[in-house]
Amino acid sequence: MGDHGYSGNLPPGFVFSPTDEELVLHFLHRKASLLPSNPSIIPDLTLYPHDPWQLEGKALSSGNQWYYFSQVMEKKVTENGFWKPLDIEEPVFCNAGKKVGLKKYFVYCNGAEGVETNWMMKEYHLCSSKSSGTSSCKKKKKSDCHEWILCRVYEREGSCIQNVGNSTDDDDGTELSCLDEMFLSMDDDLDDISFPK
């Protein structure tokens, strides 16, 4: 562990930049199947006890992303907030086109009132052993194979929350959502578009 946080067993100069397929097949599948991972670089943070900005030094750090294993939990509550599901699920496919995993998206919300932050998490899950062909999982109970997930946490660039200190005279005190800001920025472009009659 150096000044840049937990770097696992990576030699100097190496960067951890896996694809979704690699995260599911080479790391999560091996973890869930109790197979050795060489090198063993992604740590276990069994629960969700840490706020995202506290992952430095605890999770595998690569640039502005942090990776760790956890167990599947219903409530993803931390000391200062919680992870809110975004109801976005994407399949993860291998090169052969077979579905091997599932990726779920979460946003970190501060406080009990749930103010959304720029912190995001992608949660990687294994498919059922039947569809993913994970033969080593067939020997164990299904719940044993699918109790592990792999998390990738990162902070989005920019902020969708207006800065209180930069209020203008026409500011009525309401905050715009990310979608509102996107649609407002598109409004000027729509004036230049001519539609067929």
Automatic annotation (TrEMBL):
Gene3D superfamilies membership: NAC domain (2.170.150.80)
Record-linked InterPro entries: NAC-dom, NAC_dom_sf
Annotated GO MF terms: DNA binding
One Pfam family, short name: NAM
Keyword Oxidoreductase: no
Biological process annotations from GO: regulation of DNA-templated transcription; system development
Keywords, in A-Z order: DNA-binding, Nucleus, Transcription, Transcription regulation
Matching SUPFAM superfamilies: NAC domain
Domain NAC: 10-156
Keyword Nucleus assigned: yes
Protein name as it appears in the record: NAC domain-containing protein
Source species of the chain: Salix purpurea (Purple osier willow)
Lineage: Eukaryota, Viridiplantae, Streptophyta, Embryophyta, Tracheophyta
